[in-house]
Every structure is written in structure tokens, then in C-alpha cells.
């Protein structure tokens, strides 16, 4: 198990402890739909050619709290670059730096940056029409009957492996024959992962997602995918879990969807300073909206699209800003580009 301190050591190049290399689930991608459930969204800069895809992230100079935003944003960049799975990443009460009524800005930005490099919620979340109490069910489309079929199964836990989902169309990628969103395999690509229910382990009815409640069923309590929708006051969630890592790695297997081939890529985020012109602009402004990623995308080929521009907006809430820095000092400048795009906005956190 890797905790935040071990992750800090990993980012700084110190010895670290790795998670077990057993199989894992992956999550979902922005843009997948009933019409195209297999759609994969890649970060800005990926054109089908393998290599390093560098994404510059900057702070909008018109933000309310520019100086307070820098350290947590740099930490988020370091965490996504390390791409290490952790367990026990949800901290509350005495285990958290926050007062009960504060909201952790770093945790929120970790989630939103994930959206802005292509990742969706692994749960139904607020973009679905279901009631808030049912949004932790695994990501699906409504299926042929036009309604979401929601039955938590014998364990009573929404989003777990025994959920009865009727004809709902699964959009959550999981490893064939395995259904555990809290462990990670050596190879992640489309030869080992699928959406079809026929490849579930015997006895499992539906893919499980990396929800906080589900984590207890797998013996890793207080663990939740960063991409799971839901921010709570007084809570830190500043590292990734296997579900987050596997989803990005799945996309990084490229257009041929096979790891180890010439079109594979690595995502490298870089802090681009205080500017309103970079690949991904992050801002904190006076708005009633909590937090969201807005972006545009264009098709590369087939089911594969890439982001062409993006921004993260957070509102003026009772934020807690981290003051402890992890990671290096790399900074670069990159111009903003535009093109023929389709606009989308990820659902609020």
C-alpha cells in the first residue's frame, strides 16, 4: 500500500513501496455515449504518434487567490505525472489538515485535471438523470428500455459487483475475468480490458467502480478513485487509486489500443506559470459553480478523439490551500491553439 508520504518520496526520487501487480479495473472516458460507448478521449497534443504528450497547466492571472493556488496545483501535476496507485487516500477528522467546514482545493483540482486529460466519472454522477442517492452506481447508459435499472443486489452497496442493472449499457472498462478497482496489473490495454459483461468473473453481475463504500468490500477501506464524483467538507483525497491510473494507461495504449507498440504515449504535465494562455488554464473566480472542466475535442480517427483546449474553473468557496510542496521545479510556456472542435463541459466535480 502506498500512502501520501510514500508518494511524495516517489515523486522526489526516493525509494518507495509498490502496490501488488494483480489485475485491476479501469474507469470511463469523456465523450462515451450510447451511440459510441467505446469512444476514447486523449489529452491535448496526442495525434496518434507515440512519445511524450506534454500538457502545460497555468493559473489564470485574474483568479482570486493566485499565490495560494500554486502549491496545490504543482502537487496535482506531480501526482498525475507519478501515476502511482495508492490505497487509504481518503482522510478525514484527525487524519486531515482541514477544518470540518473547509473544502480541499488540491483534491478538487486533482479530479478536474483528470477530466481535462480525458477521464470521466466511473460512477453515474450528476450528468445522469438519476437521484443523487443513486449516483454511485457504475457508469452506464440507460440501454434499450430508456431507463436506468438500479438494484444494489444482496450486499446493498451501490456500484459493487452484485448490482442488478438490467439492460443498462456499461461504460466502465474492467480487466477480463477480474473485477477489483483497487489493484493494478503490469499490462493495461484493450486486449486485457473490456466493457462487455460476458468477461466478468464467475458470480459477478456488473463491473464494480472505485467508490468509497465499495472499497471496504475489497479490504482497502477509506479508498476512493479520484475521478469518482463527490467532494466532502473536511476531507482530503490527494492521490490516485488503481482505477484512475488504469484508465489513463488504457488511453495511453494509443490508437491501436495495444500496449508496447509505436503509437503508445506518456502524459507529462508541466506547470506553465501565471498566464491565461496555455494548454490547460486553471482559475478561481467569484461564481456559484463549485468546480468543473470545460474543454473542446476533435476526432483523430475512429473512436479516438483528443482534447484541443481546456480550462478548469472553481468557485469562491471555503477552500483549504495546501502549503506543503511535492515535486520538482519544471516550468515551461506554451501558446494556446484552437481549431474545429466540439464543446463539452464535465459535470460539476
Quick structural gist:
Helix content is 15%, strand content 20%. The protein is an alpha/beta fold and 349 residues long.
Please indicate the percent range of residues in DSSP E strands (runs of 2 or more). 15-25%
Main β-sheet, in a few words?
7 strands, mixed
H/E series, N to C?
HEEHEEHEEEEHEHEEEEEE
Please give the count of helices: 5
Mean model confidence by pLDDT: 88
Rg over alpha carbons: 19 Å
Low-confidence stretches: 1-25, 333-347
What distance lies between the first and last C-alpha atoms, to the nearest angstrom?
Answer: 26 Å
Global shape: globular
How is the secondary structure organized here?
Elements: H1 4-11, E1 40-42, E2 51-59, H2 66-82, E3 91-92, E4 103-104, H3 105-116, E5 140-141, E6 169-170, E7 174-175, E8 193-194, H4 212-217, E9 235-236, H5 242-251, E10 265-274, E11 280-284, E12 291-301, E13 304-314, E14 319-320, E15 342-345
Parallel strand pairs: 1-13, 2-10, 2-11, 4-14, 11-13
Antiparallel strand pairs: 3-9, 5-6, 7-8, 12-13, 12-15
Helix pairs in contact: 2-3
Give structural notes.
With 349 residues, the protein is of the alpha/beta class. 15% of the residues lie in helices and 20% in strands. The protein has helices at 4-11, 66-82, 105-116, 212-217, 242-251, and strands spanning 40-42, 51-59, 91-92, 103-104, 140-141, 169-170, 174-175, 193-194, 235-236, 265-274, 280-284, 291-301, 304-314, 319-320, 342-345. Strands 1, 2, 10, 11, 12, 13 and 15 form a seven-stranded mixed beta sheet that branches. Helix 2 (66-82) crosses helix 3. The longest helix has 17 residues, at 66-82. Mean pLDDT is 88; it is low at 1-25 and 333-347.
